[in-house]
Amino acid sequence: MAAAERVFSGEFDDIASDDEGDPQTPDSTSQGDHSEGDVSMLSDGDEDVMSENDNEGFELDDFMDEDGAAACLDPYANVFFSKERTETLLEPALKSIFAQIPIPNGEDNAGQTMRVRVLSRGEWMSGCPEGNEQSFLFQLYEKLTSGKFACPNSCGHEFDRAPEDFFALLPDFPAYVSHLERHIQRKCPKCNIKVCSACEDPVREPSPEKGGSPDGKESKALFHCPTIQGAILGVALHMIEQEFGSQLRIEKPTGVPPAKKRKTSALGKLLNTMQGGDDDSSDSDGGYGFGGFGGRGQAAPKGTGYSGAAHEDRSGEIAAEKSQFLKDQTTAKLLSQVRAYLPAVKRGHTTDLLVHPTALAHLRRRSSFVSDLLRNDSLMDMSNRAEIYHALFDWLEVVSSHEVLASMLAMPQMRAVKAVPGPDDDTVEVTYEGAPSPRELLETVVIQATAALKGLSSTSAPEASDPDSDELDPLQQSLAEAQKRKEKQRENAVTAAADASDRILDARTEIDRLLVATKGRAFVNRMLESLPRLYETEEDQPKIETSATDETTMKVYEEWAQRVRFRYCDLHDPGDPSKIKYAHAYNNNIQTLVGTRSLAIAKELAILTTSLPAAWGSTIFIRVDDARVDCIKAMIIGPEGTPYENGCFLFDIFLPLDYNHSCPLVKSMTTNGGKYRYNPNLYADGKVCLSLLGTWSGPGWISGKSTLLQVLISIQSLIFCDEPYLNEPGWANQAGAYSANVRRMVLVDAMANNLKNPHFPFENEVKTHFRLKAKAIRAQLDRWKAEDDGKATNRDYFGVSPPNTSSGASSSQTPFDVAAKHLRSLLDELDPVAPSMVDSATPSASAGPSTSKAKKTKAKSGAKGTRSSSRLKAKK
């Protein structure tokens, strides 16, 4: 290992190998004004580096078995990949090397040069290695920077070759291609043969029917040999990494005080949103907050307002969208330019059929941008950023159609997550962690595309009569023509959305087909079993043993919630044999308006299939009518750690004809028959006060931007908060009593009443929720008992409690005791537990997952990438 490091560091560069002529000095190997060489260090598991001229380049034998047949179409068949894997490697610290080169395409600038940075060996070889990758990368870089090479015709002429010939980092990819074309093929002045400066072999003119790239614009000289392919893709993928901002920053040593405010680049914020993360800037007010309080452990600061302007300033958001649009254009163009040099079987070149190992290594290590884009599992956002995603699926189309490359899409990626200074100034310690494969991330998008196609299949406007134009006056004719144009635009938009969804499904199918060919049916079946799925029918009810651990119970619950959180069903009133009336608060609206499925609804429902929070701490369930997708029912489980914990709260939702240019209609259905007001923002008559819904002042619904998912998350996180009294100005001094009263209402209605008579269509979900959480709910009752004030339940709390008049309550029993006893009996009927277990249950032993885990689960339950500026109503 030490010897390999010394070789990589260039310590023996002055020593001639056995088959070399006169020794060369480091200075004689380059024609540019280079800085000192960099250091490349490998992990202990790497193979010994081959000598510089042994098996130069790449040999077919590396991919052949003993019988001479192709050993396997998958070059990484014997390498184990895992998402749980972690590797820490020493890599060379970045040292910039510069050189002077002629200006590309410089006919008008003859003789003029420009200063460019040269890709160093450390950058070329960076990344988590597998197999013999490092050996191939080292050989190719050393060969192309070796200084001189002899004419293959043995005429005695030597060609000059410098690192900047192949590894110059120019401002854009076309400039790099133009620069490479200048150096790739040279004519020997002695014997007049044309020589490739990459593979050092004579160049034979290709036959007319062969050549080029699919669009015929790329130089055939750049497809001459696999060596050129390895160099081009290595540099090109490095440029793509730079464009995506994927370079890891080196962390400061311990002891350096942190900055007052973490600064995040615009792209960093974008990628963070794609991964479902939150921008933790302390001054962020773009979430669901309404003044910076109302959450766990937060207090209402003096002077905080409860209303706000009806219109929010979106200038910053609009500027960010414009900036993102321009960046997407640049990145999409770069992907399209590089895509032409990917191996493509249809083209039929040697480089297409026999891919250079360094090209495979770079594609495996430097394709994180594919995962970054697929991690944004929002079909709506993809449609809004159509240009970059069109380029992405163009890229995937080429990769997925190549037997060797397609297998990489199923490999978990090793992503650099941390970089700290190494033991000396020349090294950096980089930590790599396993991450989901592109194929795994694609499945979430596939689910949404499938749901979108289902919604689009019935997307049709009501047929209108086409009156004779001669019978219409000029104004009517103009309106009719405008309506026709509008319908045509709508049809085109629907067709485009359907085509995009079909393309996603086609990519999935092609990848899986080639994975079967390269890795086998058993591998693909195991992979598909581990991927998320959209369950259309009711599966076997989840079961847990009495002795199950808290972690097991949480896992079973979350897997069940993931399966059933979104479904289509028949929402007609079960008691109506005519199937005309809907079991819905907005039945009249549904009956009155024509049920046209808009493209906006189809896209949004597609997103809900995978974006609804499903966690132990809180879950949102959605049921959409099969025929009328504007008719929706939702059930939100009260978040853990709040007075609403584990209660089942139902909402009826109707999407009006002009949705999403106008907000949805939402009504709370969990009111104990119109008696209970659970929150200052949830009235006993079902009214939901939220600025997003236009029922309170503050930033409201943004036409074409806001979503139903934002509304649901706002209710889950803002209304069902742990300190609901903060939604009511002036009641902070009644905090304990207010929350205690809410807990009693939840106990009586949202829990006991729902368990005894579960509401349509969530009967199975309600019973399964309480059955799986029975142990945790019993412990929850013990905690709530300790916090109860012994008072009676108020229907609409205003700080004064009536006398304790609860029926069935003895002198030693409070209203809470009566309600808790009733709920325990219902839980026993649902999931009988020995009395000794109930009596011995304590919060520490039976509370289900720990509080810390619960908090993490609740945080995870927030929808990915969902953002709202909604404000709550509060009485003045």
Automatic annotation (TrEMBL):
Domain annotation UBC core: ranges: 596-759
InterPro entries, sorted: UBC, UBQ-conjugating_enzyme/RWD
Biased composition regions of type Low complexity, renumbered to the chain: 801-814, 840-852
Pfam name, any one: UQ_con
Position of the signal peptide: none
GO MF, one example: ubiquitin conjugating enzyme activity
Keyword terms, alphabetized: Coiled coil, Transferase, Ubl conjugation pathway
Coiled-coil regions listed in the entry: 472-499
PROSITE patterns: UBC_2 (PS50127)
Record region (Disordered): 1-54, 273-294, 792-814, 834-876
Biased composition regions of type Acidic residues, renumbered to the chain: 11-22, 44-54
SUPFAM superfamilies on file: UBC-like
Protein name from the UniProt record: UBC core domain-containing protein
Biological source species: Trichosporon asahii var. asahii (strain ATCC 90039 / CBS 2479 / JCM 2466 / KCTC 7840 / NBRC 103889/ NCYC 2677 / UAMH 7654)
Organism phylogeny: Eukaryota, Fungi, Dikarya, Basidiomycota, Agaricomycotina
